Amino acid sequence: MKTIEKPVIERTRIAMEDIPQGLYAAMLNTEKYVKTCGLPFSLIELIKVRASQINKCGYCLDMHHKDALKAGEQFERLYQLAAWQEAPCFTDEEKAALNLTEVLTEISRHEPEAIEKAYERLLPYYSKQEIANLVLCITQINAWNRLAITFGNVPGSYQPN
Question: Which residues are CB-neighbours of 155 under 8 A, at least 6 positions away?
């Protein structure tokens, strides 16, 4: 039987305690707002996982899978998230939010009308305030992904509270 060697885990390039405190405080304040804005926690975590899949952010994938499972999300929904369009375990409301997540995360790859179509798809399910909160949630995870990737945060090192 072949032994699989574990890869050497790279060290973090910039630890969170080494970044400017104003930056970290601003990110945490926005995160606190997103968590308390009224969107369901399960939807917030689905958005975070999907954007992190697109951005290939291993640290955030690890974190948000663990947080979602701890909060009661079904493993089945997490592993089907990459194929949400065809997965029957997601509601039409969730699919509309996941569509917006993809359009905004890959905004430069889409034609301008993609945003209009994504917005129209949201209208049966969300108020303007909820749509604004969805956009902030998507923007926030994209910012976290870019920080985690650039800083070299190590996937697998996150421990939920």
Answer: 58, 59, 61, 62
Q: Is the dihedral of CA 145, 32, 154, 21 positive or negative?
A: positive
Q: How far separated are the first and last CA of the chain, in Å rounded?
A: 37
What residue ranges do the domains of the chain occupy?
40-151
CATH superfamily, region 40-151: AhpD-like (1.20.1290.10)
Rounded to 10 degrees, the C-alpha dihedral 140/146/148/152 comes to 180
SS3 160: coil
What would the pLDDT profile of 143-153 be if each residue is shown by its tens digit? 999 999 999 98
pTM equals 0.90
Residue 103 to residue 71: CA distance in whole angstroms: 27
pLDDT at 26: 96
